[in-house]
């Protein structure tokens, strides 16, 4: 309650009189001998009027306060609303161009992705066809290589290779030297007819190094076979140094045949097993009445381990 209200309520409390806001005295409380003063009957009505005026004044103040609070709240709401509208307008102005740019970029990316999908499909189809073509070409290349190896082998069919013949041997007339050497060492009836002979094409070795091989071509095939047959059963020596005679093969075939070296060394310890290398590089094994042919050294060794070493 305000100060104004407190002052008014205090004016109601006169000396000797009851507080008009309190309950009026009951008749029973008035004992005999209590004297009634003039004007006592008018006080209760004045108290009611003062209360009503106080209530009315309080109500007007409450209404005024309510109006002020509502006005303050509405002003604050309007202020917040204006701020939000301004922020939303700024945000919209900033967002709309970005969204427009994003839509444009997305459309461009969609077009690009569609083009990439088409290109990927075309590349996939082309790759599939190329894979088939590469497989076909690989098969053709394998056949061509095999044909080249075969043709080179036939071109070397009459060739022989003399290994470890001393470099001091006179090579100005190589064919005469080689034919005479073969006749003397192998005890041939006559000199074999040699078409050509030369040292292998590499730098001349230093003292103590292995001499260059002599490669020669025998004119007649049967003479070449006779030379190989006698060389297998003869100790070959020239100028006090031993040498060997082998069939001349191309480097590719020589590497393929050398890969069977381990298998051949194992088979040498089994006299009851017949074996040999067939052109270009196939190991033939005859064991217990059965013949086997291997093109892979690993397969040959596996067969030897399973069937020959255990027997």
From TrEMBL:
Database matches in InterPro entries: Transposase_22 (IPR004244)
Region of interest: Disordered: 1-42
Gene3D superfamilies in alphabetical order: L1 transposable element, RRM domain (3.30.70.1820)
Alphabetical list of PANTHER family matching this protein: L1 TRANSPOSABLE ELEMENT-RELATED (PTHR11505)
Protein's name according to its UniProt entry: L1 transposable element RRM domain-containing protein
Source organism per UniProt: Oncorhynchus tshawytscha (Chinook salmon)
């Amino acid at each position: 309650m305000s100060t104004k209200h407190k002052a008014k309520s205090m004016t109601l409390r006169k000396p000797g009189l009851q507080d008009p806001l309190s309950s009026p005295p009951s008749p029973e409380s008035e004992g005999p001998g209590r004297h009634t003063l003039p004007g006592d009957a008018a006080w209760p009505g004045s108290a009611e009027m003062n209360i009503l005026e106080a209530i009315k004044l309080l109500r007007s103040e409450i209404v005024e306060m309510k109006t002020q609070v509502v006005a303050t709240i509405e002003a604050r709401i309007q202020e917040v609303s204006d701020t939000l509208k301004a922020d939303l307008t700024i945000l919209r102005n900033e967002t709309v161009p970005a969204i427009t740019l994003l839509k444009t970029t997305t459309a461009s990316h969609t077009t690009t992705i569609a083009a990439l999908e088409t290109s990927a499909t075309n590349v996939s189809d082309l790759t599939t066809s190329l894979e088939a073509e590469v497989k076909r070409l690989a098969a053709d290349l394998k056949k061509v290589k095999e044909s080249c190896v075969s043709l080179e082998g036939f071109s070397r069919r009459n060739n022989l290779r003399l290994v470890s013949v001393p470099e001091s041997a006179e090579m100005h007339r190589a064919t005469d030297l080689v034919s005479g050497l073969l006749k003397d060492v192998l005890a041939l009836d006559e000199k074999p007819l040699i078409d050509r002979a030369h040292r292998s094409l590499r730098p001349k070795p230093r003292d103590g190094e292995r001499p260059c091989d002599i490669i020669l071509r025998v004119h007649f095939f049967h003479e070449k076979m006779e030379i190989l047959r006698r060389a297998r059963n003869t100790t070959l020596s020239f100028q006090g140094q031993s040498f060997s005679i082998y069939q001349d093969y191309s480097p590719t075939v020589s590497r393929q045949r050398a890969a069977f070296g381990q298998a051949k060394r194992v088979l040498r310890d089994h006299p009851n097993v017949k074996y040999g290398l067939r052109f270009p590089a196939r190991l033939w094994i005859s064991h217990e009445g059965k013949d086997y042919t291997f093109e892979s050294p690993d397969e040959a060794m596996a067969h030897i381990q399973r069937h020959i070493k255990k027997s």
